[in-house]
Structures are given as C-alpha cells and as structure tokens.
TrEMBL record:
Residue stretches spanning the membrane: 6-22, 34-52, 67-86
UniProt keyword annotations, A-Z: Membrane, Transmembrane, Transmembrane helix
Pfam families in the cross-refs: DUF2304
Organism of provenance: Thioploca ingrica
InterPro entries: DUF2304
Protein name: DUF2304 domain-containing protein
Amino acid sequence: MSYQITSSILGLLLAGIILWLIRRDHLHSHHALWWLLVALIVMVLGIFPRLIDFLAYQLGVNYPPTLLFILGMGMILIKVISIDLHQSDLERKIRRLAQKLAILANERDPDNNPDD
C-alpha cells in the first residue's frame, strides 16, 4: 500500500475518531475543530505529496521533510499555548467562584467563622 493511501486512511480514521469523541461528549467542539484541521492536513498532504515539495521550494527550504517537522512543531506549540490559556482562564474562574461561595457562606451564617 502506498504512503498516499496510508496517509489518507490515517486522516480519515483520525477524523472519524474525533467525530466519535464529540458525539460521546468526550471532546468539546471547540477543541475538536483543531483536531479536525490536523486530520484534514494529513489527508491533503497524503493525497498531494508534491504540495509539501512546492511549499518547501517557495519558502527556500532545501529538504522538504524538514518543513513538515517545522510546521508540526509549530502547530504543537500553538496547541500548547492554547491549552495554557484555557487552563489559566479556568483557574481564574474557579478562584472567583470559590471567593463568591465563601462570601455567600459568610453572609448566610456570619457566626460560623472557620478562622476562629
């Protein structure tokens, strides 16, 4: 089996798994868009392998597979930054929620102060 068919099947399989995870409510659609984009890129590069050669030539990269690694690492870096931003947002929301809960608990029963 040629690498073109293998890459195409891998992209389709990845897209199928992503859609299954969305349907089972294991993956939020916001995150799924990223992974569906990755699956699409894998399929396109599998079907049109000369595309990476063309892009490498246009960008002045002498060895086209190097461009794949650079693009892959760049995508991973973007995903990690995205995860960190999301994590920071969640931590901030949890902290504010805990503070509001403490205020409400104190308003409800001001005599029951845990610091005493």
